[in-house]
Design goal:
By secondary structure, this protein is mostly helical. It has helices at about 25-35, 40, 60-85, 95-110, 115-135, 135-140, 145-150, 155-165, 180-185, 215-225, 235-255, 260-270, 280-285, 285-295, 305-330, 335-340, 350-365, 370-395, 400-410, 410-420, 425-435, 440-450. It folds into 2 domains: about 5-115 and about 150-225, Hypothetical protein af1432, CATH 1.10.3210.10; about 235-370, putative deoxyguanosinetriphosphate triphosphohydrolase like domain (putative deoxyguanosinetriphosphate triphosphohydrolase fold, Orthogonal Bundle), CATH 1.10.3410.10. About 60% of the residues lie in helices and about 0% in strands. The relative contact order is 0.13.
Length: about 450
């Protein structure tokens, strides 16, 4: 007899996929392999996580971050799966499916991000806002939803487009991943008109799919029997992402010399100065004491004392947060499945203050550091310059170099635009966004210098 959670782990794809009789992987492990061997995944090795255009080999890129999220997702999935089977909510024959879905979703969750990190998204939104304000004729060719796709442009939404449309192999179905993996990636299951309403709950905070891929999402929604709520595995992917970056950013910043023991300690003391709001588990864990104890137990003569301490601290804190996420999820799984639970599982777990404190260090001490701000300015200028050149080319303007620039756009993206789209103004603007988002940081920098004649 089918259990409550079983229906979400369907192997359905948009196109039937033949599997060898000697292939004993489950369908979601098959997805994992498809991602690993894709060019879009390889490009993440030269895309920013936090430190743009970094020449070192220690700090994380989008690739290493995605591998960490994938690993954490698999680990969380194994524990959640065991509990769901024990609660009689998942059939034993589905064992291995949840960790495989989360591992694959972790690999691809940042696939659509433009160069230069999250500020790259801000730069694109700013560009399109100005484009529409200064060119009412262009804006007039778009409906409200299409305009919002660009005004609220988001790399996570572009990820869905990459997987469904841009990863062209032999047809429109792209990488042809399972519906379960694709649904896990949609953090906000609304289009750009229905979503982007921060006062209407977590699920509507942003949006999850472009106008161009909305029918695809509706098909997935129908297959999985989803209503307006998020897919039940999405909160676990979100938790894995948060657990990965909120400590990893601190680790990288220590390596770069941005953070010291004293800065970390002061930030944590400030966040935890009023202990009355801490959960019993946080009091027992004692984040500040844990960090100082780890640091004090390393010999002062050791050259990289802080880096080693933070690495050990990361392992302990991540373990604490993983357990909190698993507990919160399994305690509320029925509400999550029904769509009634519209909240972040980490922020509502017993480690919420810990997560807030660690993210606060990133916001207040890392992201505002001069080196990062300088590179964000560089990235902003590069993105705006490239879009200024590409969009006249995709719109077929009479600019004398427009035709030449059009020919420089990736032949893969041009093929998709020329054969799979209706060649509307919306499609032309998407072609420009697709080309830019497909660039790595250093490719964008080199292209900028070449086109500027430097």
């Amino acid at each position: 007899m089918e259990k409550m959670f079983d229906r979400f782990l369907t192997a359905k794809r948009f196109r039937d996929s033949k599997v060898s009789a000697t292939d004993y992987r489950n369908p979601f492990e098959n997805d994992f392999t498809r991602v690993i061997f894709s060019a879009a995944f390889r490009r993440l090795q030269d895309k920013t996580q936090v430190f743009q255009l970094d020449k070192g080999d220690f700090v994380r890129t989008r690739l290493t971050h995605s591998l960490e999220v994938s690993s954490l997702g698999r680990s969380i999935g194994l524990s959640v799966e065991k509990r769901l089977i024990e609660k009689n909510l998942l059939s034993e024959e589905k064992a291995g499916y949840i960790p495989s879905v989360l591992a694959t979703a972790g690999l691809v969750h940042d696939l659509g991000n433009p160069p230069f990190g999250h500020f790259g998204e801000d730069s694109m939104r700013w560009f399109f806002k100005n484009l529409f304000e200064n060119n009412p004729k262009i804006a007039g060719e778009l409906n409200d939803q299409q305009k919002n796709d660009f005004l609220y442009f988001d790399g996570n939404v572009q990820t869905f487009r990459v997987l469904r449309t841009l990863h062209y192999v032999r047809d429109r179905d792209g990488m042809n991943l399972t519906h379960a993996v694709l649904a896990t990636l949609i953090k906000y299951p609304f289009n750009s008109l229905e979503g982007n309403k921060k006062n209407k709950g977590l699920a509507r905070k942003k949006f999850g799919f472009f106008y161009s891929e909305e029918n695809d999402y509706r098909d997935i929604q129908k297959t999985l029997g989803l209503r307006e709520g998020r897919f039940p595995l999405t909160p676990l992917l979100e938790a894995a992402d948060d657990i990965a970056y909120c400590v990893a950013d601190i680790e990288d910043a220590c390596k770069k010399g941005i953070l010291t023991k004293e800065i970390i300690e002061a930030c944590l003391l400030e966040k935890f100065k009023d202990g009355m709001f801490l959960s019993a588990q946080e009091r027992d864990f004692n984040l500040i004491k844990d960090f100082t104890d780890v640091y004090d137990n390393i010999s002062p003569s050791y050259k990289n004392r802080l880096e080693i301490a933070v690495q050990q601290f990361r392992i302990r804190v991540q373990s604490f947060m993983i357990n909190a996420a698993i507990d919160q999820y399994t305690e509320n799984v029925e509400k999550i499945v029904s769509g009634e639970y519209d909240a972040d599982i980490l922020e509502n777990s017993y480690c919420s203050n810990t997560v807030s404190a660690l993210k606060g260090i990133g916001t207040e001490k890392i992201f505002k550091h001069k080196s990062i701000l300088e590179n964000e300015i560089i990235g902003f200028n590069i993105i705006n310059y490239i879009l200024e050149q590409i969009i006249p080319a995709t719109l077929k303007s009479d600019n004398p170099i427009a035709g030449r620039i059009y020919e420089m756009i990736s032949s893969n993206y041009r093929f998709i635009y020329e054969t799979l789209s209706e060649r509307t103004v919306y499609d032309k603007l998407q072609l420009a966004a697709d080309y830019l988002c497909g660039m790595t940081d250093n490719f964008a920098l080199k292209l900028y210098r070449k086109w500027k004649g430097n």
